[in-house]
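Action item from last meeting closed. Structure (726 res):
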């Protein structure tokens, strides 16, 4: 088995993980690296690639600019270019994910080996995983780590405005991506039952039968209790300098400096309890900092509040808050606290899982943890700690006092934890269960055929032009004539394709009416059907491919009573396309219609165009997905494909690595979000004249190379790929 792991944001490398550096470089980065290594240790797994975004930025280590990094003999990190070279937060990645998909697909094409399983981590990787899975027919496994609907609810409860949340966190795009991945994924792996019942249940595509709990493991070689013969722990000096009585037991809190981690409430609980202060010192490890003023707003606010709280309760000499620690020092920090006779606490408002709880338990520490989220399962399974309400400071202090004040109870918790972590939460146990659960899925993989089903000479053309028909190519007879001449001049090096919502029969009628030669490729009925050449050779593989999860009768039943939806005439319907007229004055918003279909467990694409048409097609079908499939079969780089369109149905053709043009008469508000995209040209001319304008703008045929020849058909025969619009 070849496993492809996707974890796109944050800073990921195989050594010295910068955990806590920012909100994007937390437990997920460690999880995916450990998972990759654990899977690669198995004899029944041949290869593991952990794919992330390549970052070239002087502000971060040059490690993150390396395209490849070995994790073990069979596992590696693969870094894919997408978006700006520099490091950016995950909320700013969304507009670049289509490029990530296209670049990753090109990488896999060049490698000539497709994975048997795609496993996406977090919503942004889920967006990528869905598109790669739908294109290549590869089973998709997903792990959410944290979920947008749950986060949005908590932020609303904290008093933030809904529009502010959506703008700051790109929350609606994240939630839409999560809905899509839940509708597509063959398996969703969670860390706890709480995650399934309390968080995934918030989604329209809530299908618990597709979900399985496989808790992450912990490295029992790295995390273990201290031994008598161990040398002194060097980090002790960084802690002792804060404390008046450094020989007291330590209470350890280790997390990012994030409001949700509830560190300030822990300090308040400690400050309000003289008994707890007499029993132990408090050690807070909250990321790394040189100057708090240079941190992002969230971390700056939390750490400022930490210092103010220490001052308010006069906790000087009782609280240690070192500014720096290295990731390789974390196991030593746990052992330092164990050696002191201390306790580990996770006081977070909610914790999706709680990997630090396992690390602490494996290091010989009893636990106090939030009763919200993953710790419920961990402490329930391990019987090695106490759960508390993170909003109840008195309860937090009492739990710590109970463990610190009762040596027998503390020793019992420690032994329970050491035994249960070894039996239930090792990476070896995780990898074994993982392999068992995903093995049946690999039988569903459908590798894309290597060549198109037609005469091979078309394969050797080095570029292609695809256009929508109505109101893009058609509309100006002189423009159509000039366009036909242009394509004939360059036909030896360029394929010509139509991508339309029309059925094949009505498309052929329109082509004949306007004297347009039959294209090399016809993508019809919104990407649900593909035919090649004047012989109308049907792509049977694509037809079988898009039939995945398609249930048209159920779709029609679900929408039959929706007001404002009127089925279009029969000539607009097809086997894989259900077409409606949409009256926005009567019909519910498109988002509500999509939700209705999701709650009926119907995995489909809903396409809204020009404010008045609504089409439902299979989840694997769209113009953009069909175009990428054709590009793969023809072996044409997407950077050598120019697409023309102008409605919401054309958007996914235009995103990513294709060159695109919106002709002047189709500068529709549905595509207004694409105005800032580098490779989308908004033409001044309308119809076919706008396409010709874009051909000149991109110098699209300037490097057009005749198969078997070094000479070009255009004025510039340099072999470079066409550049993107500035």
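Sequence:
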């Amino acid at each position: 088995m070849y496993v492809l792991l996707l974890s796109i944001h944050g800073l990921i490398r195989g050594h010295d993980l910068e955990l806590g550096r920012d909100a994007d470089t937390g437990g997920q980065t460690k999880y995916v690296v450990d998972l990759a290594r654990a899977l690669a240790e198995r004899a029944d797994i041949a290869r593991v690639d952990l794919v992330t975004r390549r970052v070239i930025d002087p502000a971060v280590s040059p490690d993150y600019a390396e395209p490849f990094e070995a994790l073990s003999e069979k596992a590696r990190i693969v870094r894919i270019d997408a978006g700006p070279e520099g490091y950016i937060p995950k909320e700013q990645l969304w507009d670049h994910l289509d490029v990530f998909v296209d670049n990753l697909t090109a990488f896999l094409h060049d490698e000539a080996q497709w994975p048997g399983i795609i496993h996406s981590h977090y919503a942004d990787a889920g967006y990528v995983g869905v598109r790669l899975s739908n294109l290549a027919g590869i089973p998709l496994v997903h792990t959410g780590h944290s979920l947008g609907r749950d986060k949005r609810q908590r932020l609303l409860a904290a008093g933030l405005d809904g529009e502010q949340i959506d703008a700051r966190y790109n929350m609606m795009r994240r939630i839409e991506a999560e809905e899509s991945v839940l509708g597509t994924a063959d398996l969703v792996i969670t860390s706890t039952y709480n995650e399934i019942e309390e968080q995934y249940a918030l989604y329209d595509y809530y299908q618990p039968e597709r979900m399985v709990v496989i808790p992450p493991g912990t490295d029992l070689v790295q995390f273990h209790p201290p031994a008598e013969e161990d040398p002194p722990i060097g980090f002790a000096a960084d802690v002792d300098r804060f404390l008046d009585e450094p020989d007291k037991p330590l209470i350890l809190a280790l997390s990012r400096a994030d409001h949700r981690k509830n560190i300030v409430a822990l300090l308040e609980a400690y400050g309000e309890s003289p008994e707890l202060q007499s029993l132990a010192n408090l050690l807070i490890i909250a990321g790394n900092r040189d100057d708090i003023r240079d941190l992002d707003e969230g971390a700056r606010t939390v750490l400022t509040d930490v210092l103010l709280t220490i001052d308010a309760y006069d906790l000087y000499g009782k609280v240690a808050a070192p500014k720096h620690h290295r990731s390789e020092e974390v196991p030593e920090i746990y052992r330092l606290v164990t050696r002191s006779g201390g306790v580990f606490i996770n006081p977070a408002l909610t914790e999706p899982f709680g990997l630090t709880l396992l690390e602490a338990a494996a290091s010989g520490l009893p636990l106090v943890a939030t009763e919200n989220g993953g710790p419920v399962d961990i402490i329930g399974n391990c019987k090695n700690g106490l759960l508390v309400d993170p909003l109840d400071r008195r309860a937090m202090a009492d739990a710590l006092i109970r463990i610190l004040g009762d040596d027998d109870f503390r020793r019992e918790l420690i032994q329970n934890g050491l035994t249960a972590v070894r039996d239930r939460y090792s990476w070896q146990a995780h990898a074994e269960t993982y392999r068992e659960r995903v093995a049946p899925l690999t039988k569903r993989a459908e590798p894309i055929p290597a060549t198109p089903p037609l005469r091979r000479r078309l394969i050797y053309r080095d570029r292609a032009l695809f256009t929508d028909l109505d109101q893009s190519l058609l509309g100006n007879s002189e423009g159509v004539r000039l366009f036909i001449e242009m394509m004939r001049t360059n036909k030896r090096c360029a394929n010509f394709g139509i991508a339309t919502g029309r059925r094949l029969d009505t498309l052929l009628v329109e082509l004949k009416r306007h004297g347009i030669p039959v294209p090399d490729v016809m993508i019809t009925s919104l990407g649900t059907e593909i035919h090649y050449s004047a012989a109308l050779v049907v792509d049977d593989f694509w037809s079988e491919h898009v039939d995945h999860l398609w249930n048209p009768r159920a779709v029609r039943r679900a929408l039959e009573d929706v007001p404002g939806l009127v089925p279009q005439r029969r000539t607009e319907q097809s086997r894989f396309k259900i077409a409606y007229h949409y009256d926005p004055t009567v019909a519910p918003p498109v988002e509500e219609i999509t939700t209705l279909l999701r709650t009926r467990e119907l995995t489909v694409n809903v396409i809204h165009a020009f404010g008045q048409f609504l089409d439902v097609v299979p989840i694997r079908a769209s113009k953009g997905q069909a175009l990428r499939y054709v590009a793969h079969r023809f072996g044409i780089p997407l950077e050598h494909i120019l697409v023309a369109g102008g409605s919401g149905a054309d958007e996914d053709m235009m995103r990513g690595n294709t060159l695109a043009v919106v002709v002047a008469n189709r500068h529709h508000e549905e595509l207004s979000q694409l105005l800032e995209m580098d490779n989308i040209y908004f033409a001044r001319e309308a119809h076919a004249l706008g396409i010709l304008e874009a051909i000149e703008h991109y110098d699209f045929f300037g490097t057009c190379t005749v198969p078997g020849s070094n000479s070009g058909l255009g004025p510039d025969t340099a072999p470079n790929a066409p550049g993107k619009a500035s």
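Note appended to the action item: Residues 547 and 654 are 24 Å apart (CA to CA).
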